[in-house]
Structures are given as structure tokens and as C-alpha cells.
Amino acid sequence: MAAQCCCRQAPGAEAAPVRPPPEPPPALDVASASSAQLFRLRHLQLGLELRPEARELAGCLVLELCALRPAPRALVLDAHPALRLHSAAFRRAPAAAETPCAFAFPAPGPGTTPPPPLPAFPEAPGAEPACCPLAFRVDPFTDYGSSLTVTLPPELQAHQPFQVILRYTSTDAPAIWWLDPELTYGCAKPFVFTQGHSVCNRSFFPCFDTPAVKCTYSAVVKAPSGVQVLMSATRSAYLEQEGVFHFHMEHPVPAYLVALVAGDLKPADIGPRSRVWAEPCLLPTATSKLSGAVEQWLSAAERLYGPYMWGRYDIVFLPPSFPIVAMENPCLTFIISSILESDEFLVIDVIHEVAHSWFGNAVTNATWEEMWLSEGLATYAQRRITTETYGAAFTCLETAFRLDALHRQMKLLGEDSPVSKLQVKLEPGVNPSHLMNLFTYEKGYCFVYYLSQLCGDPQRFDDFLRAYVEKYKFTSVVAQDLLDSFLSFFPELKEQSVDCRAGLEFERWLNATGPPLAEPDLSQGSSLTRPVEALFQLWTAEPLDQAAASASAIDISKWRTFQTALFLDRLLDGSPLPQEVVMSLSKCYSSLLDSMNAEIRIRWLQIVVRNDYYPDLHRVRRFLESQMSRMYTIPLYEDLCTGALKSFALDVFYQTQGRLHPNLRRAIQQILSQGLGASTEPPSEPSSELGRAAADADSDAQALLLGDEAPSSAISLRDVNVSA
């Protein structure tokens, strides 16, 4: 049920209601062109029709609003050039504010068969207020969006509920990923999913595309026969004979958390409030790996942070084209199916998304400049859940692995990089997705961990976080809200002025560049990290023969995935290695690592590439021929194009590009094109792999890379390439 406007008079009341003070305007968001600070968005209704053959989505959007000031001249929404608006209309809110209007969609494009009309919604009793057309215009805003200005009637009063109805179609939208059947595992039916984080959903539907604004939403989706539709909401009805799906989200969420997926998906229950959805061929694997576990994680989180608020916690496994690992969409976590073969990464990624149910979804960062409020807190909560479930040693191992990656990223960016701040400054025109990095997660985590240490007891800090969630749930916050709440909850710490301790001031945590001011004590994980460090030291010691003999006695097949990944990352950090060391490593580990999961294999293959170790290049080729996901292709292509293996990379890409999503294909084309200026000649003694790749590299490269899908268009992938 939609929230009632603050000016709505109770039935039977004679006097005019006393209005509460106006809500404070949302924090200014330079990534949004909208006039969100002038309105209260009460509810949005979406009517959507999926047209996979045309790769088009037709939509009817109803926004239920109140103006916070009298006579606003216009409503400004975030939009996108991919979104074509057909009409805009105004009407005063019906007597039953939650009753939607009947949706009518724009007609399909030329040459397509018109679909049957959608069933009309139940109408409110009595006469429904009439709609009147509104003038609108679309203006440029940034390279990731436009502004849509809709003129409003001049007599509109403050706090008077009204609706704006927009009909539109969206084609080639960054938020909407259409997949041909051959890009799915089953190769049977088309597939589509949306990815809204950070600012892509403005190409899905016109909106206040800022995390500062939240509202409830409902949706009706019409899909082709045999296609299953899911959304980040509760599915309230399904009319199978007509392929119409109904959804409702009862809690306020920001626009970026409205998500949709449709395809050949089947469900299986894995717990009392959870099920997995996947293509039929993947469903047994997904079920076996998660059955019972998700409920265990949810229960642990509830003991720490209070009741789970979203009803169901379902998971949908998406094809490899999904551009990130996972996304915390409420009620329905999206996760890439490629991660299924890496059990420990799967566990950590799902638990992280579970933690977002409290930190990120219930309590959200009000601006993209403070994403650490969602990601840092979710990472802390994730590690508290893993400690409760799997013990401190495993949590410390995973943390050491991630902090290693943080310091690796810091070396690349430099300690004075402005994006290493927790309160990073977002300049106008910069896509907020470009601010997503390991500092958001791990530096944010270190600050939250530091706060937990100040109070001296992790359980007391859990109690604080539970109170923080209860106070701010379904709202958006800034860092000061968190820190003020912390000092209020622990008045003894406020009296000690812990926020001003020299070198560890809260302000410095937020605004200093570089590494975290303090890092957690990971000694409880030494039983797992010490063997990794010892093996790495053996391989970098001299003489090599003795070191290799000692190292070969250590059976890494019994290690945890994070141990092996940490060991390989250390070797990657030391690359290029002496050629005799790489030869010995290959002799000792190559066959074994080739039988392990993709998270292990890609790290070994990066070592192969960074050290130009030609005898194992056939493994690189085989890996790239079997992978269609960004996370397992882009790192290898970047390494291949940095050294002497550009010709090999070009040849592999030429053979595999037809199996890649166009967005990923364009991103790889851009990587390859950046290396065209350098010589593509193979080394003096090329392997057969290199010789075959180099044969026609010069003649084919420009035609391959600069054809219809030029690398300059790769921005559509980068726009959504964020971690969740």
C-alpha cells in the first residue's frame, strides 16, 4: 500500500489537518539532474513490456508525488538518450492513492506485430480524475544521462498529491542487457537483466536517480510466452496464460535497487524463506551448494543486527555476461553463475549481499561520495557473519587476501590518489561508478573495525549497529549520522574525545588519502596465512633447487581457495620472476592448478602471461575459449596486451568474439586497440601459439578492432562495471 501524503485528511475529520514541518530536502547529488529536493516521491508504478526481438522495453511509468513548495513550475527527472519519451500526462491522485491506472504501452516499431493489450487494472470506485497532457523536453546532462523536464500545472499546491504518467520506450540502454539465446547456458531462449548501480537505471525508467530518494514501487511486466520474470520485489500474482507478472515492493528503496531479470529460469527451494533461480542445467549445482546455508547466514545476521526486513531472500544466477560478481537487489540477489565453481568465493559473495540487506538496502548512503557507508559497513557485517558461522581463522584469511589487494591497488593509484578517500569528491560529469574501488570496501571496513575496537567489545558494537539500523532503516544517511549515533550510543567515548585522537581523528579517516590509518589484528588467522607466507618465501629463496625441493613437499591441494589465491597473488606481485623460477613453478603446480576453480586458474595464467612463459600459453588459450565473463577475461587481455603477447591476444579474441556479449566485446576491442601502436612482432623464438597468432596480425587488426563496434563505445560496459 502506498504511503499516505502528509496532507491527507483522516476520514470524517472536520478541521483542516495540521501539517508537519516539511521533510528536509535530499542531499545535493551532482550525479543527478533531478529536482528531487522539491518533491516527495510517494510511490512509483511501472508497466513494462519486454520485446526481445527488437531489444526494446516499452514502459508506462506513474509517479505519485507531493510538491514540498507551492506552484512548482516543473518536475525534472533523470533520463537517458536511450530512453524515448512518447507522452507525459498529469492527474490529481485518485481517491484511493494506491490504485494504479490502466497501463497502455507505446506501439512497437515498424515491422513488428502489435502485442495484445495488457489487462486493465481494477479501477477505483467512482469517477477517476481525468488526465491532462503535459509539455516536456529532454536536455543533455552528462555522458551517462539526460535531464527530462516536465511542465506542471501552475495551480499545484504544496503537499497536494498528484500523479505524472510517462509513456516511453528504451532501446540500447546501459541498464538493460539483452542476451541472445546463444549467450545463455541453455541456448534456448533470450535473456534480459537490468543493472542499475550506480546511475544506469535512468535509462530503464525516468526517475530521481539518486540514493538520497527512496520510495515504494509496484510493477506489472508482460513477457513472451515461456519466459520467467523476476524483480527485486515480492511477486504478488502470475497470470501464466497471458505471461503477465505482478510485483510489489512495500519498503522504500532508491531507484538503483529496482531490478528485473527474465529468461529460461527455474526455481528450487533452499530454505524456509529462500530459493534459487537458475537456468535448468545450472539449477542442481546451485541448489546443492546453497541448500540450508543461506538460512544459516540470515539467522546469524538477524542475531547480530535485528530482523530481516525484506520477506524473502532469493538468489538468481545470471549468465556470464552479467558485468559484476553480484548485486544486492532487495528480495532477489543477482549473482554471476561463473562463481559457482569457486565455493569459498561464492560463500563470501552471497554473505556480503546478505549483509547489504541491513547496510545499503535498509540504510543507504545519501550520496555516491560516501559509498563506504554501504560497502564498508556491509563488509564489516559480512565478516562478523562469517566469524559466527565459520570461525575467526577463515575470516582473517579472507580479510588478509582482500587487504593485500587493497595495497596492490594503492601502489597502482598512488597514496595521494583522491579516490582513496572515504569521502571522495565527485566532480560534475564524472560517473559515480568510477569511484567504486577497494578503498570503498576495505578502507571503509578498517574504519568500521576501528570504531568497533574503540568500544572494546564486538558484541557491544553489534548492539550499536542494530540500534543504528533500527533508527535509520528505509532512509538515506551521511557519515555524520553514523558517527553522531556512535558517540551518542557510547557517551563514555564521547567524553574521551575519541573522535579527535591524534593521528586517528574521524575527520582524517574520512578525508585523508592513502592507506587505512589502522588495520585489524589478523593473528587469529595465522594458522592459515603462515603456510602461505612460508611457501612464498621458499620460492623467492636461493639456491632454487633446494627451495623447489622444499616447496614441492607442501601439498597445496589441501589448502583453502583463499590460501592458494593469496599465494598466487604474492607471486603475481613479484612478477616478472626469473625464468628458471617460472619453469620450476610450472613443473610443480601447472597441472594441479589447471584442475582447480577459475579463481585459482586465472591467477596462475596471469603469472604465465606476465612472465612470457610460452609453454603454458595453450592453457591461456583454452581458458579464454571457455570463459564469457568480464571478470575472467578482461584481466588476462590487459596482461596480454601489456607485454609481447598482443598478437596472441588478437588471435584468441578473433576466435572467441562471437561468444561474447557486445559490451564485453567492445571493452576487449578497446584494450587490444591500445596496443596497436606497439610492435606486434613475436619474439625471436616464438612458440607455435605465437607464430600462429602473429601471421596476419597487422593486416587484420585494424579491420577487426575498428569495424562496426568501435572500441570508443566501450563506455556502456564501464558505466555498469561496479562491485556490489
Question: SSE layout and pairings?
Answer:
Layout: E1 39-51, E2 56-67, E3 74-79, E4 83-92, E5 132-133, E6 136-142, E7 145-151, E8 161-171, E9 176-179, E10 191-194, E11 215-222, E12 228-231, E13 234-239, E14 244-253, E15 260-263, E16 266-271, E17 274-278, H1 283-290, H2 293-305, E18 314-318, E19 326-327, E20 332-336, H3 343-356, E21 363-365, H4 372-390, H5 392-413, H6 438-454, H7 458-472, E22 475-477, H8 479-489, H9 491-495, H10 506-511, H11 526-539, H12 544-552, H13 561-573, H14 579-594, H15 598-610, H16 617-626, H17 630-640, H18 646-656, H19 662-673, H20 688-694, H21 697-705, H22 715-718
Parallel strand pairs: 1-11, 17-18, 18-20, 21-22
Antiparallel strand pairs: 1-2, 2-8, 3-7, 4-5, 4-8, 6-7, 9-10, 10-15, 11-14, 12-15, 13-14, 16-17, 19-20
Helix pairs in contact: 2-3, 2-4, 3-4, 4-5, 4-6, 5-6, 5-11, 5-13, 11-13, 13-15, 14-15, 15-16, 15-17, 17-19, 18-20, 19-21
Largest sheet features: 8 strands, mixed
Mind telling me the CATH class of the largest domain?
Mainly Beta
Count structural domains.
3
Q: Termini separation (Å)?
A: 29 Å
Pfam family, one: Peptidase_M1
GO biological process, one term: proteolysis
Keywords: Aminopeptidase, Hydrolase, Metal-binding, Metalloprotease, Protease, Zinc
Cofactor: Zn(2+)
Question: How would you explain this protein's 3D organization?
Answer:
With 724 residues, the chain is α+β, with helices and mostly antiparallel strands. The chain has 3 domains: 29-104 and 129-261, Sandwich (Immunoglobulin-like); 365-523, Neutral Protease Domain 2 (Neutral Protease, domain 2); 524-673, Alpha Horseshoe (Serine Threonine Protein Phosphatase 5, Tetratricopeptide repeat). It has an 8-stranded mixed β-sheet, with no helix packed on it. Strands 16-17-18-20-19 form a 5-stranded mixed β-sheet. Strands 9-10-15-12 form a 4-stranded antiparallel β-sheet, with no helix packed on it. The longest helix has 22 residues, at 392-413. The two termini are 29 Å apart.
